[in-house]
Design brief:
It contains 31 helices and no strands. By secondary structure, the protein is an all-alpha fold. Among the domains are: about 130 residues, no CATH class; about 100 residues; about 120 residues; about 70 residues. Helix 6 runs parallel beside helix 9 and helix 11 runs antiparallel to helix 12. The termini are far apart. Keywords: Mitochondrion, Repeat, Ribonucleoprotein, Ribosomal protein, RNA-binding, rRNA-binding, Signal, Transit peptide, Translation regulation.
């Protein structure tokens, strides 16, 4: 009753009507995102792409690359069969109809020569077919609207006058295209064959057929010229645009600013041209955007000391125009001040200022160069040995969905390699191993160079007892046949004598390494024994009191034409003395004499002194017989 009474009072004194708020529209992945936010990444689990078939989960970087290529190859094969035999893929068994599960239409449906058919081919990105159909329309006297012609120009200039190539498929190149590619200074290549704006190419030919080209027409042509290295032609076309009393759009100016360093030689001339373009933007009342800021900063990377003096004023000017920098902006800024291999005196705090600006922020993709920021930042941290800023960079990677801006698999591999190498260089081994277990192999497949950095970190902190465990990881990661890496591992185990328990694990590890030399992995180059690797292997076995195993390894010197050192034979004789095996001591002397070692007489003298039961006659029979050609490698 009390509840009903208060309810009555509540509704009685309400004067305004209750307004139900608008419902929130959730994305299709909202529930999955909410669930994912409740858990952390499992470092022991494989990548999500391999969860369906754990048996085929890659364990090495080469297997990962092979899996990715085979996956893409399967997609391309499916597209081939769908395009070759489309009639077999028209039946839709899904009820209700699910458009995303049906194959894309790869063949043109309109066969007649018409503007509608031209639009269809443009939308399907069939460059050559669209150009051929456009020529047929011109020959038939059929007018093509300016809007459709501009769409055709966009298609030609974007793909470089050729059909787009399939992803991850090797491109066929001839001598002419290879020569043209070498002349281009772009860091990024077109997804199709390299195209240069030669005389009477399709882009310029279609443009010339326009009776009254508009700003869109000029913009498409200029951007295509800049993309494919025709920088002087781009500025000449821009002059024609101005002579025709037209105004350029922001995309045109962005392309011209990018091309400015290519048409001038001196740093100040490059900057003056950029300033002139910005002034023309103001005169034509063209508002700059984020890509304009990034184009200016990218051009300043080619302006030497002028770039360093103008970088921050450019950012301040853009902020005055309410343009917030993206990760690409900060990437260009860092690249201006930190050149690979250059000294960093007086500018080491630039990275810190950038990190103060971006820390804790979540970024979205706005520029293709956004994916370069994390790689550049961690490279600078590695060059300057700044582990504190490296942690801040890695922390930024975990904010929001910034991880999406790390780039493709190759870029991710570069980032983690630099980050982990810096850890091995600057942190203690416990911290290094913590990161190692967190990243490998769920996120990152380390290269042999990075694993060498890990071995050096173990050596620095005197944690060589972990070498057998690292050796197992080396084999699993596919580095078991890297000779320089294996030899360094053997050298570390043989350098200092550890306690007996550790020496036993070293001995088992050494014998396992010997198997890699004997058999090797299928399809991989077998390692060849060197005198150093054999000596290290014998030393490890002797330290673990594995004299018989060491004796078998000693015989491999003669098998592989390698010469043991006198120090190794002295060490072996000391081990034989502890067991009192006179016969093996004599055999050791014979081995030394067989290699014609200068220390053989001293070895004979040791045997005479330490093994009193040895007959001088037996020792005198050990003569130097150099009947083999041995290598001292």
């Amino acid at each position: 009753m009390l509840f009903l009474f208060f309810s009555f009072l509540f509704f009685f004194f309400i004067e305004e009507e209750i307004v139900i708020p608008k419902k929130k529209t959730w994305s299709k992945e909202a529930v999955l995102q909410a669930l994912a936010s409740t858990v952390n990444r499992d470092p022991t689990a494989s990548d999500y792409r391999f969860q369906d078939d754990p048996y085929l989960t890659p364990k090495t970087s080469s297997e990962f690359k092979l899996f990715s290529l085979s996956q893409e190859s399967g997609r391309n094969a499916a597209k081939y069969f769908i395009s070759t035999y489309p009639k077999y893929f028209q039946k839709d068994y899904a009820q209700p109809h699910i458009p995303c599960l049906m194959p894309e239409t790869l063949e043109a449906q309109l066969e007649e020569v018409s503007e509608a058919a031209l639009i269809e081919r443009i939308q399907m990105r069939k460059v050559k077919a669209a150009v051929d159909l456009y020529d047929q329309l011109q020959q038939a006297g059929t007018p093509v609207s300016l809007d459709v012609t501009n769409q055709l120009l966009d298609l030609i200039c974007f793909y470089g006058d050729c059909d787009p190539a399939q992803e991850n498929v090797p491109e066929q190149r001839n001598e002419e295209t290879v020569g043209q590619e070498n002349k281009l200074s772009h860091n990024k290549r077109s997804p199709c064959l390299v195209f240069s704006f030669r005389e009477n190419n399709n882009a310029e030919r279609v443009f010339a057929l326009l009776s009254e080209p508009n700003t869109h027409s000029y913009s498409a042509l200029i951007r295509g010229m800049v993309k494919y290295g025709a920088y002087s032609k781009a500025f000449s076309t821009y002059t024609d645009l101005l002579n025709n009393q037209l105004k350029a759009d922001v995309s045109t100016f962005n392309a011209l600013i990018t091309a400015a360093p290519e048409v001038k030689e001196k740093y100040n001339e490059k900057w003056e041209l950029i300033v002139d373009l910005l002034k023309q933007m103001a005169e034509q009342k063209v508002k700059p955007n984020l890509l304009t800021l990034n184009a200016v900063l990218k051009a300043l990377r080619r302006c030497g000391t002028v770039g360093k003096s103008q970088a921050f004023p450019v950012i301040s000017e853009m902020r005055a125009l309410s343009i917030d920098p993206s990760l690409a902006s900060y990437n260009h800024l860092l690249s201006i001040f930190y050149k690979p291999g250059a000294p960093f005196q007086g500018q080491t705090d630039i990275l810190q200022e950038v990190m103060n600006e971006v820390s804790g922020k979540s970024f979205t993709p706005q520029d293709p160069d956004d994916a370069q920021f994390f790689i550049t930042a961690v490279r600078i941290c590695l060059d300057t040995k700044d582990i504190e800023q490296a942690y801040r960079v890695h922390e930024l990677l975990g904010v929001g969905e910034n991880w999406r801006l790390l780039g493709n698999d190759f870029q991710q591999n570069i980032y983690h390699a630099r980050f982990f190498s810096l850890l091995c260089m600057m942190e203690n081994i416990d911290v290094v191993l913590k990161w190692y277990r967190d990243l490998v192999p769920s996120v990152y497949y380390p290269s042999s160079n990075v694993m060498r950095d890990l071995l050096q970190a173990l050596d620095t902190d005197n944690r060589l007892d972990l070498i057998p465990q690292i050796w197992k990881d080396l084999k699993q990661l596919g580095h078991g046949n890297r000779q320089t890496l294996v030899e360094e591992l053997l050298t570390l185990m043989a350098r200092e004598k550890q306690n007996q328990e550790v020496q036993e694990t070293f001995a088992e590890c050494a014998l396992d390494i010997k198997k890699m030399y004997d058999t090797g992995d299928r399809g991989k180059v077998m390692m060849s024994w060197t005198a150093g690797s054999l000596s290290d292997l014998v030393s490890v076995l002797l330290a673990a009191q594995r004299r018989q195993d060491a004796w078998e390894i000693l015989k491999l010197f003669k098998t592989h034409n390698r010469v043991p050192s006198e120090e190794l034979l002295d060490k072996f004789l000391t081990c034989i003395k502890e067991s009192g095996d006179v016969n093996q001591a004599l055999e050791l002397v014979q081995i030394s004499a067989g290699f014609c070692l200068p220390g053989t007489p001293k070895l004979i003298q040791r045997v005479q002194q330490e093994f009193l039961t040895v007959s001088p006659f037996l020792l005198s029979s050990s003569k130097c017989s150099c009947s083999y050609s041995f290598s001292f490698k």
